[in-house]
Every structure is written in structure tokens, then in C-alpha cells.
Amino acid sequence: MKYTWNVACEAMRLAPPAQGAFREAITDFTYAGFDIPKGQKTYWTANTTHKNPQYFPDPEKFDPSRFEGNGPTPYTFVPFGGGPRMCPGKEYARLEILVFIHNLVMRFRWESLFPNEKIAYNPSPIPEKGLPVRLKPHQEIKTYPD
User: Fold this and answer.
1) Is 126 within the bounds of a domain?
2) I need a labelling partner for 47 at 20 to 30 A (CA). Which of 38, 60, 66, 75 fits?
3) Which PANTHER family match (predicted)?
């Protein structure tokens, strides 16, 4: 399910499950001409990192092939955080995502009720009408007796 995971990763790149986090500067540093003193609270956003054209050319385009081979440069794709603070449930989330996608694709076809629905950012990307879809089984789903 490698390609399926690439699709999931690209979806998380465009709409990260966690928007970012607060951190405390452990040393004085300068960033983009601003002096940040040790102890200052800072906020990083996954969205800004994931849409940096230096690491993701044409960053608004949905392109699962970005995750083929070695994938993105380390710490440029961080939907589950990175380093020692990486989400401990990352592999469980991966399993859940893959099982969900597999069952959705294998059992149903779907159509968007608003195909050109706009996305609002407040602060997370959210479909303006909630992204309603109509699911139809590919075939009759068999139920098994208990």
C-alpha cells in the first residue's frame, strides 16, 4: 500500500492534522532579521513548512509522487512532529489511515455534492459546506450472522 500511503502523506502535507506547536528558544538566535532571545516562546506551523516551495515545488499542487524514493528532506514534512517529540501514535495513525482508505475505496464509490466547494482557512483549512459526499456501495455489502 505504498502508493496509498504516498496519497495520505500528500493529503497531510496540504492539510496537516496538527497545525503546529509552541516551543521555547533554548538559545539566543536571529531569524529573518529578528532577534529571538533565549526563553522566548515561539510557534512553528507545519503548514508553513509543508508549503515551502524550496522543499515542495508547486506547493499547492496535489502530487503524491513527492513521497516516492527517499521522500522529502528530513524535518520538512512533519504531520506528526519530529525528533524526540514525534507523536508516539504515528504508526497506529498510519495503520488506521491505510485501513480506512482501503475499505473506503474497495467498498464504495463517492461523489461530492458540491464539486467546486471553496476552502476556508480559520485557522485550519475547512470546506465551507462541510464537504458532504454521497457514498454508494460498489456492490451489495454482505453481512454475516453472529
Assistant:
1) no
2) 38
3) BETA-AMYRIN 28-OXIDASE-LIKE, CYTOCHROME P450 26
Q: Does 9 count as an annotated binding residue?
A: no
Count the domains in the chain: 1
- The contacts of residue 64 (CB under 8 Å, 6+ apart) are 3, 6, 7, 9, 10
Report whether 92 contacts 98 (CB < 8 A).
no
Position 119 in a domain: no
Q: What is the Cα–Cα distance from 60 to 119, expressed in whole angstroms?
A: 13
Give the mean model confidence (pLDDT) for residues 117-142: 84
